[in-house]
TrEMBL record:
InterPro entries referenced in this protein's UniProt entry, alphabetically: Cyt_P450, Cyt_P450_CS, Cyt_P450_E_grp-I, Cyt_P450_sf, Cytochrome_P450_Monoox
Family the entry assigns: Belongs to the cytochrome P450 family.
MF annotations from Gene Ontology: heme binding; iron ion binding; monooxygenase activity; oxidoreductase activity, acting on paired donors, with incorporation or reduction of molecular oxygen
Pfam families, alphabetized: p450
Cofactors required: heme
Binding locations of heme: 404
Protein species of origin: Gemmatirosa kalamazoonensis
Keywords: Heme, Iron, Metal-binding, Monooxygenase, Oxidoreductase
Listed name of the protein: Cytochrome P450
Span of the signal peptide: none
Length: 461
């Protein structure tokens, strides 16, 4: 056997630089290292060895071809303290069983049913904007989209009768997420036992979440019509594994973990996608005009615009392209971490068990080798003839057996919400704003973009 070439190794400019960087702004650290060292780079942080891979083919190796040699990354281990063993954090046989149980809730016919709630919620949000004031109303775009998608997540997951408790769940998750910067560090599990300011909030949030979610589960089990409801929780209550002869439904603890996972993933990532989309449209009036032209032709404009339906989705290609381009520039899941458990080779170099491996949609989505003018917002690139680029040059929902189970749910929700609101409103960005990506568990805005609500009028005939 010939020895593998040594991994390019990044050296910190000062002691602890990488440890601080991975805790404060992992996105900035990964970007700097990839630009300085290329497609594969090793570095040490917090006593651990990490490898960042920036080439699409290497991302495919980690997530698909050699996925059995990896398990979920360090951040997911810390998330498990909050989310338990849900689809986002579980491993092995448990993950495969839970995915089989949850799959029917995300079939096309189920998403079509959820689409009605999504579209209705967006209409109510438009009416809410209308009631606030006809002109010159300023909003925090990220906060608006978070609250809207929170309501959609609560309704599709729990049904229509737990709105207040859905908001309580979101508030508790927000409190718990303040410890997110600790997630990448090796001492995270121990740090959460220390009397630190955010730690107390994390523990309190965990107790609040358990009380709320277990209460909803108990009520739903006792309800006479539980098996006739259309929400996700009701489907999970009666789901059984098709590969088990005498399949048992989920326990209360399993249900709690899946509910927590779906609730967090179901509103956090979509809210971020929509917030970034409004920002990009506000900065690119030509793309905004093309979006309005498509929506006006299909739905109308202004107060008379009709609500989009699930059947309208194939007839809104530019709207989908706008969202795809937004996810390219600002992928909500900007990095996907794994831990090597079996020695393997990536890009011709050896990776040892125990090393953390990071693949990053952000890095590949901004790579000029695959995306000409990568910083430019061009929805038209999604309708042009497909260039010869690797599949994993674009992977906002991950890949392999752990690809996001809610991908089509997210596409449906984001398209319906954007189409409903953009057919009736323009969000005019306020001047002199500097909105930067904040890399936590997902890619948020810092601060949230501020915009003026401008009602749209029907186009001249």
């Amino acid at each position: 056997m010939t020895a593998s070439p040594p991994l390019p190794t990044a050296r910190p400019r000062w002691p602890g630089e990488f440890t601080v960087g991975i805790a404060r702004s992992p996105l900035a650290l990964f970007t700097r290292l990839a630009r300085a060292h290329g497609d594969v780079v090793r570095f040490r942080a917090a006593g651990r060895t990490f490898v960042v891979v920036a080439h699409p083919e290497l991302a495919r190796e980690v997530l698909v071809t050699q996925q059995r040699r990896f398990v979920r990354g360090y951040a997911h281990r810390t998330l498990r303290l909050l989310l338990g063993d849900g689809l986002l954090t579980s491993e092995g046989d448990l993950h495969r069983r839970q995915r089989r149980l949850a799959n029917p809730a995300f079939h096309r016919d189920r998403i079509a049913a959820y689409a009605r709630a999504m579209s209705a919620a967006a209409e109510r949000w438009s009416d809410r904007w209308e009631r606030r004031s006809p002109t010159d109303v300023e909003v925090d775009v990220a906060a608006e989209m978070t609250t809207l998608t929170l309501g959609i997540a609560g309704e599709t997951l729990f049904g229509t009768d737990v709105g207040d408790r859905a908001r309580d769940v979101a508030g508790a998750i927000g409190d718990a997420m303040r410890v997110a910067p600790l997630a990448f560090l090796p001492f995270a599990r121990w740090a959460l036992r220390l009397p630190l300011p955010h730690v107390g909030g994390f523990v309190s949030a965990r107790h609040r979440l358990d009380r709320i979610v277990y209460g909803i589960i108990a009520e739903r089990r006792a309800a006479a019509d539980a098996d006739r409801r259309d929400d996700l929780l009701s489907m999970l209550l009666v789901a059984t594994d098709p590969e088990e002869t005498d399949g048992e439904p989920m326990s209360d603890e399993q249900l709690r973990d899946e509910v927590m996972t779906l609730f967090l993933a179901g509103h956090e990532t979509t809210a971020n996608l929509l917030a970034w989309t409004w920002l990009l449209l506000g900065r690119n009036p030509d793309a905004e005009a093309c979006l309005h032209a498509e929506l006006d032709a299909m739905l109308g404009a202004g107060p008379a615009a009709r609500a989009p339906t699930f059947d309208d989705l194939p007839r809104l290609p530019y709207t989908r392209s706008v969202l795809a381009e937004s996810m390219r520039i600002y992928p909500p899941a900007y990095a996907i971490g794994r831990i090597c458990v079996e020695r393997c080779t990536l890009g011709g170099v050896d990776v040892e068990p125990g090393w953390g491996v990071v693949t990053s949609p952000w890095l590949t989505h901004h790579d000029a080798r695959w995306w000409p003018e990568p910083e430019r917002f061009r929805p038209e690139r999604w309708s042009e003839p497909a260039p010869d680029r690797p599949k994993f040059a674009y992977f906002p929902f991950g890949g392999g057996s752990r690809i996001c189970i809610g991908e089509q749910f997210a596409w449906t929700e984001a398209t319906l919400v954007l189409a409903t609101l953009a057919s009736r409103w323009r969000l005019e960005l306020l001047p002199d704003q500097h909105v930067a990506p904040l890399s936590r568990i997902t890619l948020r805005q810092r601060p949230g973009a501020r915009a003026r609500l401008v009602p749209r009028s029907p186009a001249p005939s």
